[in-house]
Amino acid sequence: MEYKYPFxxxxxxxxxxxxxxxxxxxxxxxxxxxETEAFTTPWYTEETTETNRHVIxxxxxxxxxxxxxxxxxxxxxxxxxxxxxNMAKAAVESAVWDLFAKKMNQxxxxxxxxxxxxxxxxxxxxxxxxxxxxxxVIDDKLAFGYKRVKLKVKPGNDVExxxxxxxxxxxxxxxxxxxxxxxxxxxxxxxxxxQFNLQMIEQPLANDDFVxxxxxxxxxxxxxxxxxxxxxxxxxxxxxxxxxxxIINVKMSRVGGIQAVKEIEKYATEHNVSLWCGGMLExxxxxxxxxxxxxxxxxxxxxxxxxxxxYWHRDIIAPAVxxxxxxxxxxxxxxxxxxxxxDALKHFTVEKIVIxxxxxx
Length: 361
Prior knowledge:
about 350 residues, alpha/beta, TIM Barrel, two-stranded antiparallel ribbon, 15 strands
């Protein structure tokens, strides 16, 4: 699927998304849907679209069909036999959760313990060709009522950029995301960001670091938010123990699925750590799952679950995700709450793989 607008970060430029939709069908013909959220190159995590396919086909599906499943929690337990590959796991596990919620005739967000049907959302804005262009994009997004604006920054495109945004928009909730573009030796630059009353600085240092983030947080007034460093429940415990951050961006696909999110959310509640739901430039199925996750109680900050029209000319769900006054209302329907648009799915599909319990087509 081609994005309406290319998305540019410190890693590079993303113009389209290749991914798999996972459809899990039970003996009664009821379907649940998941979405792989890795990219075609391993710039965000070590996973890619094609490694997701390999792991799902070769290892995860056999674990799913090995014996009947009575509850989606069992899927996460079975997947413990496979190391990492969290995005592959999440795509399959979330599809089973959707299927189970439909069988229970219950909205997924309620089934997993969510308490909010109306979700506050922010918007993430990639690096633009000029500051004036960025200001225009921000103005356009604020017209939709988004509750928070996230800017992508990198060395050489940071302090003065934020200064100008703050001059024009002095009162908006504003944060910056570095996608691991800085080093601890850039402390002088990062400390200058304290003057702009930012909601947070997301993942300023290395994607696998906790120790240097802890050192940096002690020297900043602005809260640090960890994103790429958090892959597991254990990572959350490490970050909290070391004081590496005050906020965590939880992406269901990055941590391995809904069951992992539930465990992280419980721990964050007990330790008073603020959570919010990040985005992966996903299509409608992944966006619907993210909205369900964002309904959990400790997700207290606006997420990146922006409207479908922010990314796509045509999404693969009906209705598309819409934002009104900076909020998304989750449909009160069973499962993820949205129907997969079969015509749209067919339009975008380039390959279909059918895996039965005893054979593969």
